[in-house]
TrEMBL record, chains A, B, C, D:
Name assigned to this protein: G-D-S-L family lipolytic protein
Cross-referenced Pfam families: Lipase_GDSL_2 (PF13472)
An MF annotation (GO) of this entry: hydrolase activity, acting on ester bonds
Domain SGNH hydrolase-type esterase span(s) in chain numbering: 11-193
Length: 208, 208, 208, 208
């Protein structure tokens, strides 16, 4: 009889991920589903989100919060604050830095044989007619994530693309919040469920 | 025989309009076409663009540059700097101010029986995959212009919509400039031709 | 026997002025002092502050809120949001616009023989070691107000200068709020008293 | 007779430091003075400035550009872009990140026995009446540097303090550039000489 060590999955991100382990957070929902499906022993899901984090904040705590913990899989979900803080406090992240810091971490993880899953930044505002002020910039940063995933051969959870598709159907009144988010950015129960559903298959995906 | 006074049309805007009377500018192109079509005597086309102008700068010089000149038609083309300056210098225009100053001027013109033509703000960046950083915000400000046109019953030149449509076809490499603009914002010869073609029919349009 | 019409004084500004007529607001405090000194019949003090207002918002409502009311004196206290919104939302006001809109209103008032009192923008943060992020910009905008006052021969309430002087003495711990403001910007009871004390003499000052 | 290895000094910073090895740059000037004083064999001065760098860009290239080169001394001169980019592109650095990334690098260097010299960020604009827009913010970031120097026992070159002192005397017309800088930020010949004179003694200072 072989006793398998569970797969250690760390979710690395900002406040959205910080809420992942909440009672109705997306990490908790995935755990619940693993239990229901009798697979909970195969996984250890760990939240490593910090409110307000931008790409370089992840880099700053990368050694301590990721490498030292020797994960099997790292799910990176970052970029909202990198775009949002530009207009909120003048302290967003230049696109080239977003690319460089992001790529550097992915490269280090891949070099160590750690599986990496990338998520495109979700939404700042849920309006479906592409009039959320940061839509263009989020599209650009999402595109950067897709290119990194392609270049480093990572699985991708294209949250931005999927959420926009969802909102086209489920936001008939073109509301700026309340469909998937409670405040334009942070997920409500539906949003957490949405993310959990998008991410869950990745746990079982073949590493690329 | 009746000698008709020519229709006085003032183009009211920012640096794009300021370049309108240039040799290959869109105002000059419209004049040339009027000549070719033998209609030049029916119109007086006047450029009133000032570099860097935002909506409240138009309001500031509204009396002197528009009302005092007693135009028959005013073509308003403003909004690029209102959006652009947000990230360039922290001095863009809040959406509600854009709406309020814009509406106030349109109302005054309509109340005096002056014809008003509105233009949606064109582009900041020509990438066709909706990743120009200000795309969302420009869409929002464009939407405001459409709503003002609807409310006050004005003819609309939907430059933003038409340019995006044009770029989908004519920007195969997803370049950020060089198709209609020389620098992401200001028109090159093709762009000036494009605007002239869009605006020309409005000169003959029935006032709504 | 002559029945004198009271002097109509309008306070024209942002949220700080909007709070002026509050129970402990600076306009109320001046009224109370006028009562105590038996001079209340000589003055009518009117608050015309609107939250979030910048210089061009004053210009926008200038006709309706000031000129139409035919005041004898207008006390202008504006500039905090012009500076603050730069970093808060990317929608502050360029220095040259601050100068131009401000000068235009002062000129119109003076041309009509209306007395104008200018106030320098107070503070965003109360730290006394000149490390409040907007200190330099507020100094610049304050300097613009002083130059307008000089050029148009207006009485000046130099709130910024006087508050900085006060904080040097009364902020031993270099706190960022709580001395004159409750939140770095809006006045607490002490701040309202301070402003009332600074402004009161101007009511009786000889027009320059 | 002992043949001493020269002291390896790396200058770590942004475009100002990038210009340090120019013909009239401050690093070249210090080398020239070392030659004149017959001490050039005792030092190896290395420029490691990159245009546009902010504190986290230094952190990003810290291993490669500093640690791998095994310096004896590191002179850190960073902060202008951290403040400036807030209004230029909305991508400045939050004060707490400036503190954290800065402290982390200083701690690592000190733990390895490497001497660290800190420089306060110089100027953005040379006006001497404290009306340069970023004066308050630069004062705040300068204060952070002073506190790090104190906490980690580092020698400090207080460029900001010394330049302000110099400008009080040598900028009679309150010009915004042309005294020490050529463009409000980057040093002219006088500015490079000024920095060289400020830094030179530190080469011989006792490590604290």
């Amino acid at each position: 009889m072989t006793l398998l060590k569970p797969k250690k999955v760390i979710f690395f991100g900002d406040s959205i991920t910080w809420h992942g382990p909440d009672e109705d957070g997306f990490i908790t929902l995935m755990k619940n589903r693993l239990k229901t499906e009798g697979k909970i022993d195969q996984f250890e899901l760990i939240g490593a989100g910090v409110s307000g984090n931008k790409i370089y904040d992840l880099f700053f705590r990368f050694q301590k919060d990721i490498l030292d913990k020797q994960p099997d899989v790292v799910v990176i979900y970052i970029g909202i604050n990198d775009v949002w803080h530009k207009s909120q406090s003048g302290t967003g992240t230049d696109a080239n830095r977003y690319l460089n810091f992001y790529s550097a971490m992915v490269k280090i993880l891949k070099d160590r044989g750690i599986e990496v899953v990338l998520c495109t930044p979700s939404v700042i505002g849920e309006k479906k007619d592409f009039t959320n002020p940061q839509d263009g910039d989020l599209n650009a940063y999402g595109q950067i994530v897709r290119e990194i995933a392609l270049k480093y051969n990572c699985n991708l959870v294209d949250l931005r693309k999927e959420m926009i598709k969802y909102l086209q159907v489920n936001n008939p009144d073109n509301a700026e919040k309340g469909i998937l988010t409670r405040d334009r950015v942070h997920m409500n129960a539906t949003g957490n469920k949405f993310i959990a559903d998008q991410m869950y298959p990745v746990l079982f995906a073949k590493q690329r």
